[in-house]
Amino acid sequence: MKNPIKKFIISAACFMLIVSGSAVAGQQSAHAATNAVESQQTVTASATSAQKKAAIIAYAKSLVGKVKYKFGVNNPSKLIFDCSSFTKYVFAKQGISLKWGSAAQSKQGVYVSKSNLKPGDLIFFSVSKPGRINHVGIYIGNGQFIHNTIGSSFNGILISKLSNYSKRYITARRVG
Question: In the chain, which residues have pLDDT < 50?
Fold first, then answer.
């Protein structure tokens, strides 16, 4: 076994079983060891999710200056995406499957309130028709998000302050 915590827990459980000599005590020790191992697995799964989200953000940032925005396009070979095909592409690099389309992505995963955003959460906006989801970005922490967008003098990946989009913000989802 490579995990010293699991090794210690299992060793302690075996020791308790031998010392107690009682079937009831043995069952209780085995149950405690199983619970401890399951708790460790939950912590490991959470760490893995956090690691995936960190990798998603790092990869998205690595594409700054390389990706171009074009409405309705999903062209990974040329790094030309709309906002949702960009999030779809970046999340796929970590094995998380997203649909294409910001409205479709807004139905994936679980709802997250604005006050409980964590890095790696998808955030959705209305940028043209009020109240209608038509833009998506990735929350990166510290009140900022990364997204693929176009403006009068800009085309590509941009890191923006969420507070600048407060009137356009609609919802957020946690996926993966």
Answer: 1, 3-44
Q: Are residues 16 and 93 in the same domain?
A: no
pLDDT score recorded for residue 48: 84
Same domain, 106 and 163: yes
Q: Which of 89, 124, 122, 84 is nearest to 101 (CA)?
A: 84
In whole angstroms, what is the distance from residue 165 CA to residue 125 CA? 8
- Selecting among 9, 83, 133, 175, the annotated active-site residue is 83
Please, what is the average pLDDT of the chain?
82
Active-site annotation holds for 31? no
- Torsion sign (Cα): 100, 102, 107, 111: positive
The C-alpha atoms of residue 69 and residue 86 are separated, in whole angstroms, by 9
Q: What's the pLDDT at 46? A: 58
83 is catalytic: yes
